[in-house]
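Human: Here is a favour to ask of a fellow structure person. Comparing notes only helps if you start from a blank page. I am asking you to supply a protein in sequence and structure-token form. Write it directly below this note and I will take it from there.

Assistant:
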Amino acid sequence: MSSSAIEFAASAASSIGQTALSAAATASESSVTRAAAARAALAVSSTSTAGAMAAMAAAVNATATATTALSANLNCEDQLNLFRMKNISVFTLHNMSDDCKPLLSSRYDIPAKVFIGLFLSILASGTCFGNVLVIMAVGLVKKLQNPSNLLIVSLASSDLLVSVLVLPIAIMTQLLGYFPFGEVVCDFFISCDVLLCSSSILNLCAISIDRYLVITKPFEYAVKRTPTRMGLMIAAVWLLSAFISIPPMFGWKEQFVPGYCGYPELLGYQIYATFGAFYLPLIIMLVLYGNIFKLARKMAKADEKQKVVHIKQEDKNLIDEQLPNGQTARPSMQSSASDLPKRSVRQPASRKKNNSDSKAIKTLGVIMGCFTLCWLPFFIIQIVVPIYNVVQGEKLDMNPNVFEFFLWLGESIFL
């Protein structure tokens, strides 16, 4: 190969190498530029996030400032009205002026507070003591230890727990005018209230089913009426009550408002809870007790006819024994009770049992009537208010005294 060719090849190789180095340098510079651009974009993103957070904080501060200014510009009466409307986006207990907070309980003067507190405390204590006696009586008296009374013990247990876990907090809230505890205590309070009230109502429903089967299928049900079956029925009552009360603890509720603790006003939950805890059991009890009363009336008429026939037969036998053969009996107005022989009429065991069942039916009927009158207005409010809120798109501004009256009317069934 000639020298000129070698020089040309070397020159070409050198040129290619320089081009490669230049391309590598350019690529490196491009990579550095892209990395710098990425870092710049990240910085911008961080700045934007910080800006958004700052904007949110500013909005929160602005809202707090606005509500503070709102409370400063309103008198205490207007602040109390806003608080009782439970509008969480506008006003809470924390926004209320310090000099207005004591006025939450100002609807009661000191003597009224003392009277109401003592009265409700005595009733709650009496409820606790009475239900303890019921449970002890069934546990200690062997004559009372039968399967049906297990349902009575379950009912007494739910009422006892209401007086211990629910009523003290309810009485305190009633006297203060606001809920003094936080969200955890509120969730516990509402869950216990719903659980125990539901179990009490469902226990009454189970008792009505038991009474119905005892009267309509006495022989068949007597074999099946074992403590185990009663225990399963009681377990079903408490399990259903738990299903009704647990959902709010897992988020099926509204945002907690400091100073207020009430039942969720969500329409879906209220339909689920009110129908499961009250309306369906009420329908079942009304149908069963209606059939029981019809059957009891038929049994009473049948017993009356049997009694009349029995007395007539006894009188005929008595006349046949006293008169000689062939004589005719004539009633005498001068006859005295001493002229008649002494006789005792014994009621058959079946009739005594029917009388006992009739008394039990009447007692449970009175309980059923009181239960319906006490709880029905409250559960009507519980379903009407959420429907109004959904239809109108705003919360119903109900007088809190009306709601509290019907709530305590329902709670009075435990007292």
Q: What stands out?
A: The chain has two domains: 25-103, 126-308+352-414. Residues 25-103 form one domain. The CA atoms of residues 271 and 317 lie 66 Å apart. The chain has a mean pLDDT of 74.
